[in-house]
Automatic annotation (TrEMBL):
Residues 472-693 form the Protein kinase domain. One of its GO terms (cellular component) is plasma membrane. One of its GO terms (molecular function) is carbohydrate binding. Keywords: ATP-binding, Cell membrane, Disulfide bond, EGF-like domain, Glycoprotein, Kinase, Lectin, Membrane, Nucleotide-binding, Phosphoprotein, Receptor, Serine/threonine-protein kinase, Signal, Transferase, Transmembrane, Transmembrane helix. It is found in: Cell membrane. It is a single-pass type I membrane protein. It comes from Linum tenue. Residues 298-334 form the EGF-like domain. The keyword Signal applies. Residues 345-431 form the Apple domain. This is non-specific serine/threonine protein kinase. It catalyses: L-seryl-[protein] + ATP = O-phospho-L-seryl-[protein] + ADP + H(+); L-threonyl-[protein] + ATP = O-phospho-L-threonyl-[protein] + ADP + H(+). The lineage of its organism: Eukaryota, Viridiplantae, Streptophyta, Embryophyta, Tracheophyta.
Length: 693
């Protein structure tokens, strides 16, 4: 999944499977074949994955009997659904049968005098039902259907998936169906030994912009954030990945959330924990033969609902974790000092102007008091907000592509969490007096580098980089160049990054740092490395790039073992990729850019061995028709420098082309330009190639 949260393993309701000498396995329950508890009968899905039967939770002194579903071939029973959770039988004489008159399933007591539980037909049928049958599907869904109706195999008179208990299985829907009036949500067990309805719930609130909530009783304690086309705005790490796929459907007929397992051999479920404020994803570990905790929500204090109150952002890595937004102040400074932030913040000045400030990387605020239009553009959304003096903020509802849709807030902005990356943009209404003062830059002086010239490059706090790199541990060091050391880091949300740290004794300084920030933040090409942010704090100056798992090209072509991974087709693709990136710099970008330090160690390889040109600290920008320059300070790497540049300081696009030619020779030959020596003819690499052709 790409992330793993560590939490103390909470209590979940599991029971040892006890052997039953007279167990009888059924493949269906019919009007003439009930499922009888005293006979030890169970109903099993066709593939043998799930089993339905009567059970007693907890100690042997507990006499209550329930009808439930569990995974059949797992030695530690984990009940995923209970029919009569609030009306248990008190002995083993009860049974599950089909009631043809009411077209339902019923659990009756031992003397058949008391109906303990009954299903209601969910789907309406226009034809005469002639042969009712109850089956347990391979998904774990208990269904009641007409055995003779072959017109629609997916239409059931009733199904357990419409009435979940505390567990969400793959393929199960969490949410509303307007046609049937169903509201599918999870409710915890009362205790590990008592499956009756507990206090904790998880469901979808559908008014305005739908989003998931968790409640204890009527009190909210967690909110997911609205779905933004890719995932929940409050959980940017929960997006489609090699293990899970996530789905959120929102139309006039239904609103629901659903997940699927891409690898069907895996077993993973989502459970509302009965003893704490937690929703947990559990996974079955075949090696340890136990259920393990994969992830849990809320993950931290900032995941708790409205921790910081109104108009404040929460970031768990900060101290304090709550901060008023620009133009706002704490409503109760005394309580704020005592680390009690729930009263939130208030505006410092009246909101009497028509202006907005953009905030990025946020969990969008509570959408209960909002308005939504799925077809508006962001510009139309802004105008709509300006037309209503009660509007406090606006944002896109869908962030895929260029963004689309409009969400407008009309009340205080509550429950906002700040992420290092992956959050969403929102535009918050501000007085004119605040608009000119606003800046996301907290540091003065050199920190403006990352914000000037409309770069809007995210600033990342130093302590986050320290945490991500394990305090710049040697084990995370990827290498070192003229700029300084480069470290691998893993951000709090699981994103892998490469951190270039400017060394105090580096041959490059603030000028080169500025050049790289200005250039790479404006350049967008698949063969150029992507800059994610920068960090300027005290004497520290760092650039944070996307992480390239295969590192630099030189680690492949000059290594006897790894070079075997590069066949001629792959080497040709790498050469073409570098050429495309260089062509973009020289001709296709808005400004002509000369790299001046193109070499194998400055070409990075992604997971698919696609090349990306990096390290723009020595680059030069030319406007108009200018394409060459002169310098007294010759910088770069000997062996790759064009003769006129090394001797006289003259550089142009031809200088980069010369470096590219050397690089092509290295890729083909696997030999370094610097250090190559042919003993017979005393030639370097380029001389040897020229005499051999």
């Amino acid at each position: 999944m790409g992330f793993l949260f560590q939490f103390p393993f909470a209590v979940v309701h599991v029971f040892l499977l006890l052997p039953c000498s007279s167990t009888a396995v059924l493949d269906a329950v019919t009007p003439t074949q009930p499922l009888i508890d005293s006979d030890g009968q169970t109903l099993v899905s066709k593939d043998g994955t799930f089993e339905l039967g009567f059970f007693t939770p907890g100690p042997s002194s507990n006499r209550n009997r329930y009808l439930g579903i569990w995974y059949r071939n797992i030695p530690v029973r984990r009940v995923v659904w209970v029919a009569n959770r609030d009306t248990p039988a008190t002995d083993s004489g009860s049974s599950l049968s089909v009631d043809t008159g009411n077209r339902s399933l019923v659990i009756v007591s031992s003397n058949k005098s008391v109906t303990l539980w009954s299903s209601n037909a969910t789907a309406s049928s226009n034809h005469l039902v002639t042969s009712l049958v109850a089956e347990l599907l391979n998904t774990g869904n208990l269904v009641l259907r007409d055995q003779n109706d072959t017109s629609n195999s997916e239409e059931f008179l009733w199904q357990s998936f419409d009435y979940p208990c505390d567990t969400l299985l793959p393929g199960m829907k969490l949410g509303w169906d307007s046609k049937s009036g169903l509201n599918r949500g999870l409710t915890s067990w009362k205790s590990p030994d008592d499956p009756s309805t507990g206090d904790f719930r998880w469901g979808i609130q559908v008014q305005n912009n739908p989003e998931e909530f968790m409640w204890k009783g009527s009190e909210r304690f967690h909110r997911s954030g609205p779905w933004n086309g890719l995932g929940r705005s409050g959980a940017p790490e929960l997006r489609d990945n090699p293990v899970f796929s996530y789905k959120f459907v929102w139309n006039e007929d239904e609103v629901y959330y659903q997940y699927e397992l891409k690898n069907k051999s895996l077993i993973s479920i989502v459970v509302m924990n009965q003893t704490s404020y937690l929703r947990q994803r559990l996974a079955w570990n075949e090696g340890s033969q136990s259920w393990g905790l994969y992830a849990s929500v809320p993950r931290d204090r900032c995941d708790n609902y409205a921790t910081c109150g109104a108009y404040a952002t929460c970031m768990v890595s900060e101290s304090p974790i709550c901060e008023c937004m620009k133009g706002f102040k704490s409503k109760s400074p005394e309580m704020w000092e005592m680390a009690e932030w729930s009263q939130g913040c208030v505006r410092e000045k009246p909101n009497n102007a028509e202006g907005f400030v953009r905030y990025s990387e946020l969990k969008l605020p509570d959408a209960t008091h909002s308005w939504v239009n799925k077809t508006m553009s962001l510009g139309e959304c802004r105008n709509k907000c300006l037309q209503n003096c009660s509007c406090t903020a606006y944002a896109n509802t869908d962030i895929r592509g260029a963004g689309s849709g409009c969400s407008i807030w009309f009340a205080d902005l509550i429950d906002m969490k700040m992420f290092s990356t992956g959050g969403q943009e929102i535009y918050i209404r501000m007085p004119a007096s605040e608009l000119g003062m606003y800046s996301r830059v907290k540091e003065q002086g050199d920190s403006n580098i990352c914000r000037k010239e409309d770069l809007e490059l995210p600033l990342i706090d130093l302590h986050k980089i320290v945490d991500a790199t394990a305090n710049f541990s040697d084990s995370n060091k990827l290498g070192e160049g003229g700029f300084g050391p480069v470290y691998k880091g893993v951000m709090a949300d699981g994103q892998e990054v490469a951190v270039k740290r400017l060394s105090s004794d580096s041959g490059q300084g603030l000028k080169e740092f500025k050049t790289e920030v200005i250039l790479i933040s404006k350049l967008q090409h698949r063969n150029l490395v992507k800059l994610l942010g920068c960090c300027i704090q005290g004497d520290e100056k760092m650039l944070i790039y996307e992480y390239m798992p295969h590192r630099s090209l030189d680690s492949f072509i000059f290594d006897k073992g790894r070079s075997r991974l590069l066949d001629w087709g792959k080497r040709f693709d790498i050469i073409c990729g570098i050429a495309r990136g260089l062509l973009y710099l020289h001709q296709d970008s808005r400004l002509r850019i000369i790299h001046r330090d193109l070499k194998a160690s400055n070409v990075l390889l992604d997971r698919e061995l696609k090349p990306k040109i990096s390290d723009f600290g020595l680059a030069r920008i030319f406007g108009g028709d200018n394409s060459e320059g002169n310098t007294k300070r010759v910088v770069g790497t000997y062996g790759y420098m064009a003769p006129e540049y090394a001797a006289d300081g003259l550089f142009s696009v031809k200088s980069d082309v010369f470096s590219f030619g050397i690089l092509v020779l290295e890729i083909i030959s696997g030999k370094k330009s610097r250090g190559f020596y042919h003993s017979d003819e005393s030639l370097n690499l380029i001389g040897y190639v020229s005499t051999s052709c």
